[in-house]
Amino acid sequence: MSSFSAELPADLWRGWVTHSTALLNSYRERTGQELILRGGDAASEAERLLAAPFVVVSHGTGADPLLNYGNRVALALWEMTPAQLLETPSRLTAEPMLRDAREKLLAQTARDGFVSGYEGVRISATGRRFRISNVTIWNVTDAAGQPAGQAATFGRWTFL
Fold first, then answer.
1. Would you say residue 1 has pLDDT above 50?
2. What pLDDT digit, counting tens, does each position of 95-140 carry?
3. 30-55 burial by CB neighbour count: b if 16+ within 10 A, else e?
4. What CATH code is carried by the domain that includes residue 9?
5. Domain count along the chain
């Protein structure tokens, strides 16, 4: 068990592992590529996704969806703990004046399955602004094929 998984209650870690599998499978289904090297059990894959050297972040399906996953790079970039992340509405990752453009992008993703090459500005929990580049956003489905939210990944950002 990693230090991260040790920080979470066992039931939350199990949910995190299940969601990691949904993220990985949905990414492959939508883009035809693997997000990380696959293999081993679900917990091992969840650990590799958590430790990936790029951002992976997602939100659920609610009317004002909450963030429901962030790997270590995402948590550091948005300056949040796992507990803070899980209580944060996804819209708060963008500044108020940029939220309409973000919503249009998410609607396009919902329609098309995934979008690649997005660039935009985001804001951390402490107000630190950063530009994200070459972002891929995809629709996430659970093991039963039901909508489970949307996710994003990127490896480039610049603090503003």
1. no
2. 887 778 888 888 899 999 999 999 999 999 999 999 999 999 999 9
3. beeeebbeeeeeebebbbbbbebeeb
4. 3.30.450.20
5. 1
Encoding tokens for residue 99? 């939220």
CA distance 111 to 17: 27
Over the chain, what HEC string results? CCHHHHHCCHHHHHHHHHHHHHHHHHHHHHHCCCCCCCCCCHHHHHHHHHHCCCEEEEECCCCCCEEEEECHHHHHHCCCCHHHHHCCEHHHHCCHHHHHHHHHHHHHHHHHCEEEEEEEEEECCCCCEEEEEEEEEEEEECCCCCEEEEEEEECEEEEC
Its domain, for residue 134, covers 3-159
